[in-house]
Amino acid sequence: MNAPELIRIGTRAAPMAAFQAEQVAELIHKHSPDTRTEIVTHTTEADLWQGDLAKLGGKGLFTKEIDQMLQRGSIDIAVHCMKDVAGDKPIPEGLIFAAYLPREDVQDVVLFPEGSEHSTLDDLPAGATVATSAVRRKAQILRDRPHLQVERVRGLVGNRVDKLDQGEKGWSAMVLSLAGLRRLGLEHRAEQALSVDEMIPAVGAGVIGIECRRDDAPVAGLLEQLNHAKTMKELTAERVMLHGLRGHCNSPIAGHCVTGPDGQLVLRGMVFTREGAQFVHAQHWGEASNDPGTLGARVCADLLRQGARELIEGIPH
After folding, report:
1. What is the DSSP string of 40-95?
2. Which of 84, 216, 291, 302 is catalytic?
3. Residue 57 pLDDT more than 70?
4. Which residue among 64, 149, 151, 221 is least enclosed by CB atoms within 10 Å?
5. Any idea where the domains of the chain sit in the sequence?
6. Is the pTM of this model over 0.85?
7. CA 62 to each of CA 86, 117, 257: distance values in angstroms, whole numbers, following the listed order
8. What's the topology of domain 242-313?
9. Residue 27: which residues within 8 A CB-CB, separation 6 or more?
């Protein structure tokens, strides 16, 4: 099969998203030197909205308009952060994820204003405010440190860090992803790394997915050469769990699958109330079949038996 002459790469216009698209373009050139690439950026409705994304329809809006461009044929592939891809809806008609890149660091990290005397969350006094974008982070911070206040914040990461330093919001700390800071050259601002035991990552954290049209065989064939099999298995387990929980991007759900030295998959799932006061947790191994879909369904069923649906819907126990 002949390689495509040109691949138009669709992405959000945000700096971090554009960086990811450049990364994909470099990989395409490496595997198919004669294929030209063109990056097509688009500012989505979700990028422009400064309020709570749940009121607009959730984080899935970050991907919806890019997917529509792909369906229309105005781009050839779409590059998405998999943590932004909704788990309660099917992939849009006619599209497939043909490749997942190797997973990046999934850790969350804590930043403090420049010149702050604090260097860990445990240093903060009662009532101090921690800024973060995710329900998942808010719930886990309050679960372990109920004496703190957590304020949800949106916007470009660079702008958020500037606001932290300027002190206009009165934030004492901010929690962000390490991978995101690295893409922006801001890794040096991370003061405290939170282990995955302290802060279970979001489903799909650190994974870049590449989507194309199902019937575009030349592009799909090239993308398959970029696919990282280990990441795909781990992500499949996480997303099967998320789908079974009917979790959307504003659900207080965390999930993280890893592959042990023996090749055995291990999946941890957690569902919280939004304030972190109640939670359910499940962890299972792949066992004999080591099938990621079976593993995701098993963890999902365990969480549902413990009352995960009520926690997601905000129904008190």
Report:
1. EEE--HHHH--S-HHHHT-TTHHHHHHHHHHHHTS-SEEEEEGGGS-SSSPPPTTE
2. 84
3. no
4. 151
5. 6-102+206-227, 108-194, 242-313
6. yes
7. 10, 36, 24
8. Double Stranded RNA Binding Domain (3.30.160)
9. 101, 226
Query: What is the C-alpha separation between 173 and 119, in angstroms, rounded?
Result: 9
pLDDT value of residue 39: 96
Q: What is the pLDDT of residue 1?
A: 65
Could you check whether 6-102+206-227 and 108-194 share the same CATH topology? yes
Question: In CATH, what class is 108-194?
Answer: alpha beta
Q: Cα–Cα distance between 78 and 220 in angstroms, integer?
A: 12
Taking the chain, what is the end-to-end CA distance rounded to the nearest angstrom?
57
User: What's the rounded mean pLDDT across residues 145-150?
Assistant: 94
Which residue do the tokens 């206040």 mark? 149
The CATH code that applies to domain 6-102+206-227 is 3.40.190.10
Pair type for strands 6-12 and 36-42:
parallel
- pLDDT at 15 (0 to 100): 85
At residue 249, the pLDDT reads 61
Residue predicted with more confidence, 104 or 46? 104
Q: pLDDT tens for residues 110-140?
A: 999 999 999 999 999 999 999 998 888 998 9
Establish whether 52 is a catalytic residue: no
- Could you tell me the CA-to-CA distances from 177 to 32, 47, 156 in Å, in that order? 32, 18, 13
